[in-house]
Task: structure prediction
Amino acid sequence: MQGSFKHSVRRPLQPVARGLRALRVRPNHVTLAGLVASLLAGYFLARGHLSIALIWLLVSLLCDMLDGDLARLDARRTGPLGAFFDSCADRISEAWVLGGLLIGQAYHGPGLNWVWLTVWVLALSGSFMVSYARARAEGLGIGCTVGFAERPERMIVLLALLIAGWRASIWFLAALAFMSWLTVGQRVAHVARATRSGSDATCRERAAG
Result:
């Protein structure tokens, strides 16, 4: 289900990726554009302009999908540095957007309370842990793409939050937190199963090192 969803979303963007490749646009350029768009989204969120933040967050999401497609089309010009930059840019983007949401909720929305802040912390930490769990697993030599709440899905929840407005933000943050931590649990379980198999016995030695 998850794979078919991603394929259906990415399919219309493939001609755009091919066009960017023909123009000699590199994946890192698209990643940088997405990062700038997310920084603008966070800025306008902090200023209370939900509609403008929505536009920039949508641009960031499109760039996030395009840079991967472009990298697959032009693997010769994409190396480990590009993957590292993309991963770092994604974390900065999420922190900046959720930080902007926090400031906007405090100064332009209904304000903050301990329930909202708790859910916000769970959403932020869960989003980061989804990516960290995958990176740590792959560092042990275990492929770990299981789970639903990868970055595009999390971004879609944030887009829905911006459409719904400040007063409904806690419910979308709660959905984001639930999806993220469920995915973390799925990835922990996946790695636990993999490390119990004989083929991944060396992973324990790497973890201890």
In short: The domain at 2-208 is CATH 1.20.120.1760 (Four Helix Bundle (Hemerythrin (Met), subunit A)). Residues 199-209 have pLDDT under 50 and may be disordered.
